[in-house]
Write a structure and sequence with these properties.
mainly alpha; 80% helix
């Protein structure tokens, strides 16, 4: 039977092909811009939350002298209630331990350092999604330690507010994906391989 196994190959019209390519480029460009806009909003959100924690930390620093000043009267009252003989050496050791237990100097310094490091990393042109996640964890550890050592209601209220701000940062970090990092330059790249890799990441 003639033409039974013949194969006809339809050629796409060049004009249609140009239209498809144009539409594809426009779609990719719109996707690029959407990702850039989202990144800018996330950056603003991070900066706002980090700044809020900085301000709360400053309030902690400002009230710390009053907190530590309140410890001395409590110690004096506790000592005045003791009627039995006191081993002075042992007493000094216990006082040093007690004061160190509530000292938050190191936590204040480390927390301030982590906050600055987060801002510095966020501003970097390199891919830093996973790194920001690690820094956020360290910020959380210092905030938790502040809360456990404060033993001062007004300061603990500030710590609760810090935790709330940090949770908002963590929620936003989920949007950029901490499993693998992609620079925004990849979206704008004309490199076909980079574009394909990025699209696979999205879908």
């Amino acid at each position: 039977l003639p033409d039974t196994l013949s194969v006809q190959k339809e050629e796409i019209d060049p004009a249609e092909l140009d239209a498809i390519n144009t539409l594809l480029e426009e779609t990719l460009a719109a996707m690029d811009q959407s990702r850039i806009d989202e990144g800018a909003l996330l950056s603003e959100e991070f900066s706002l939350r980090i700044n809020n924690i900085h301000q709360l930390l400053q309030q902690v620093i400002d009230m710390d002298a009053a907190r530590m000043g309140g410890i001395k009267p409590r110690l004096e009252k506790a000592l005045s209630d003791i009627t039995a003989p006191i081993d002075q050496n042992r007493l000094e050791q216990e006082l040093i331990y007690y004061i160190e237990k509530y000292d938050i100097t190191e936590e204040k310094v480390r927390l301030a350092g982590h906050l600055d490091y987060f801002s510095e990393t966020q501003s970097s042109s390199e891919s830093q999604g996973k790194k920001l996640g690690f820094i956020a964890q360290e910020i959380g550890r210092e905030i938790n330690t502040l809360g456990s050592k404060a033993n001062f209601a007004p300061m603990q209220q500030l710590v609760v507010q810090m935790k709330d701000e940090l949770e908002k940062i963590k929620e936003q970090l989920k949007k950029i994906g901490l499993d693998e990092n992609y620079k925004i330059e990849i979206v704008n790249s004309t490199d076909k391989e980079k574009r394909e890799k990025y699209v696979k990441h999205l879908y």
